[in-house]
Structure formats: structure tokens, C-alpha cells
What does this fold into?
Amino acid sequence: MPISKKIAEEMKKGSWIRRMFEEGIKLKKQFGADNIFDLSLGNPEMEPPQKFTDALKKIVNDPVKGMHRYMPNSGYPETRTTVANIINRESKVKLVCGDVVMTCGAAGALNVVLKALLNVGEEVIIFSPFFVEYVYYLDNHGLKCRVVETDADFMPDVAALEKSISANTKALIINSPNNPTGAVYEDRHINQIAQVLGKKSAEFGTEILLILDDAYGKIVYDGAHTGCIFNHYANSIVAASFSKTLSIPGERIGYIAVGPECSDHAEIMGALAFCNRTLGYVNAPALMQRVITAAADVVIDISIYQNKRDRLYNGMIAAGYELHKPKGAFYLFPKTPIKDDVLFTQRLIQERVLAVPGSGFGRPGYMRLSYCVEDKVIDGAIEGLKRSIS
Ligand SMILES: Cc1ncc(COP(=O)(O)O)c(C=O)c1O
It folds into this structure.
């Protein structure tokens, strides 16, 4: 039975992350796992915080009757209230349970939002370099993808954004802290984006939705801070996750938070619950919702990631690489010493270092290095990176 032609085609092209993952398996078999320095994946090696594990144990040891049953498609009211209260620490407009839908991670959240709010053929803008899955998510819902370059510091180029908005633009997805660059969009950047969206919405008589992909949440360094979009723009939605902030990506728990001042708010909440169900997620995992209710206010130890960032960054600077010191997430995005990023990452494979070419994120001439790995992997990679540049 043949698979869909489109999927066959897409799988043939594959994602660079996937290709590197497969390369890693091959190399680990050949040379032993300890001799491969794999910086290709955003799969954190850090264990979740104690409070998460304690909450999980408590629920398992002291079960609540009916805790494995279906629930309202938006999730448990107490979990949604907990999430709303956490957002309210930063939001000037106050969110309540009814503004939140629990989802299967940020990936689930983004797909539910796109399905619920956008019409086939409408255009969504993303900034480059971008998280490559966006392209697939947009395609899932018959949406057009328009890519706008960021500036030399990987920050939003608002002039370019303004030029690219048309009457068919329905949404802008921003991602901060950013994968792959580690850039963090502060209040002033969010405000500039909000101004442009407001101006162009008025010009075209449309409503442009601002979606913040907050998958990396509070993983920020050096006092950086992603601006709260609800404070700047009414038609705003956050798609967020506990995958990275609690180091539990396999558990698939995240949420959608809709700005209380978003137009058609009640219809949107109904549509999100409907799409959570009909896209096949039904609801976010019940057990994880209960754990999150008890542990949503904790975050993994950010200082560990900051030390890893510094370790890899300093090693690369000493080796002669050109790169920004990122303020968030757990990636470095250096220039490749030769223009051909694919060729350079192949050269790195000879040194048993795995990195993802920038081409995989819409930005050739760069590469992404993930530092959510053990220090010994970072140290081994630095040696290979040094040899590859000389
Ligand atoms: C930018 C970005 N958005 C969304 C996701 C999806 O995260 P989740 O595990 O919460 O679905 C990821 C995962 O790596 C990501 O990097």
C-alpha cells in the first residue's frame, strides 16, 4: 500500500535535524557513543526539577478517583487557572481559566491555533532563521508561508516585516527565546512589531494575529526577558510548553493562552477546544495536567544552561568562530568558516561532531549547535570544532 506522494516527497527531502540524528546513530554504532559529540538535537539531558518528580509521585501514590478519564477538551479548570495566574505575574491584562487551553506541547498548541483561526490559502509570516517545523504546521492547514529575514543580530527587521504584510496576511509567528539563534525579543521589540501589525491591520481593514511561540519560556540569561505580548497587542495568542522549562519533552504538555482583549474571544475559545479534539489530541495528558498544577511555577536550573552556553561560546571564540552570545534557549548559531554550511557540517562529521546546517533553518552560511548536553560532549565537540577551522 503506497504512502501519500506528498509525504513520500517530504520524507525524501527530510529535515536536516533528522538526517543528523540518523548520522549520529550510525556513528555511535561505529565508534561508540562516548566518542561522538552530538550537538544536533534539542533534547535536554537534564532531569526535571525535584518538585516535578515529587508531584508526580504524590499523584501516583495518592490517586484521585477518575483521574484517568476524559475531561473537557480544554483541560482541567484548576490547571488552566494555575497557568493563567503564572502569566498574570507579567501581564497587565489579567487572564483567567477561560483564556487557557491545555495542549500536547507547543507543537500541539500551534497546530490547534492555526486550524482554529485561519482559512485555507491565508498567509502566515515567520522570521528567518526559523524552526523548520513551522513550514509543515502551516502546510497541515493549507496556509501559505512567507519568510522575512531578521537583522544582523537575528532580531526582527520591522521595516522588512511592514513591507511583507499584504491584505492576505492573517498571522505572524514569533519565537522568543529563539530556536535556532537564541535571540530574545524584549518589550521594545514586541512593541515595534505590535505597532507594525496595528498599522497594517488598519490599512488593509484586516485583523492580523500575533502568535508567540514560547517553547523556551524562562530559559534566558544575563537579565534578558521576552516581552509579554498581551501588554502590547490585543489580538495575541501564546503557544507555550513545559517541554524545555521542566525538561519533560516526552510528556507532551503545553498550553494556549489567548489575550483577554482578543476580538471574538468566546468563539476562539470554543474553536480551540473543538480543534484540540478533532485534530486527534482530544485533550492534553491528564496525569501531566495534574502534575503541572502542582509544579508549574518551577523551572529547571537555568544556571546550568548558562554555564554550558559560556563553555561552548568561549571555546568557539577561542577557536576563531564568528558568533553572537545568545540570551536564551540552548543553541548557538555561529557562521560557518566556509560559505557552504552543508559541506562544513560534513567536515565536522569527520571530527565526530554533529551540528545542523543553517540551511535547515532557512539561513545558509551558519550552523546550529545545541548545548543541552553533558559538559564532556561540549568539550569533545570544541576539540573537533578547533581542528575543523584550522
Ligand atoms: C521553537 C520551537 N517551537 C515549538 C517546539 C515544540 O515543542 P513541544 O515539545 O512543546 O511541542 C519546539 C521544540 O523543539 C521548538 O524548538
About this structure: The chain has 13 helices and twelve strands.
